[in-house]
Specification:
The chain is an alpha+beta fold. It has two domains: 2-49; 52-125. It contains three helices and five strands, in the order ααβββββα. Strands 1-2-3-4-5 form a five-stranded antiparallel β-sheet. A hairpin with a 5-residue loop joins strand 4 (87-93) and strand 5 (99-105). The longest helix is centred in the first third of the chain and has 25 residues, at 26-50. It is elongated.
Length: 127
């Protein structure tokens, strides 16, 4: 996934360069390309740091921890969508009523845990 993201960033910067350089010159194209690169690179790093690392299933619901060890979302499951055995989208509602949406790819988790989470989500979402 990181390779695809890096390729996306390279293609995006090249597209910005190809669009800006003929109209405004090489200097502005370089500045714009650098800005686009910085924005996309920072967004990639932020996404990687906030990516779910640990899940805990408890009697009150599910809690999700990021790679940095911070609590990303916690609450009971109020909604669920599943696309085959590939992707699971959960809606968690915390005690304050705020909704957190999580998109979980099957290859992020152990297959048995993914299946268990999907069954729990379907059961909780329809209750």
């Amino acid at each position: 996934m990181y390779l695809a993201t890096a390729l996306f960033i390279v293609v995006s910067v090249a597209a910005v360069w190809a669009t800006v350089a003929p109209r405004f010159g090489v200097v502005r194209a370089a500045m714009t390309g650098t800005a686009v690169f910085a924005i996309l690179a920072l967004a990639t790093v932020r996404h990687a740091r906030n990516e779910p690392r640990a899940f805990k299933i408890g009697p009150d619901g599910v809690s999700v921890w990021s790679r940095m060890g911070t609590l990303r979302a916690q609450g009971r499951i109020v909604g669920c969508s599943q696309w085959s055995d590939c992707l699971l989208m959960l809606s968690l509602e915390d005690e304050g009523g705020k909704l957190h949406r999580l998109l979980i790819a099957a290859d992020m988790l152990d297959p048995d845990f993914f299946r268990e989470l999907a069954v729990l989500a379907r059961r909780c979402a329809h209750v």
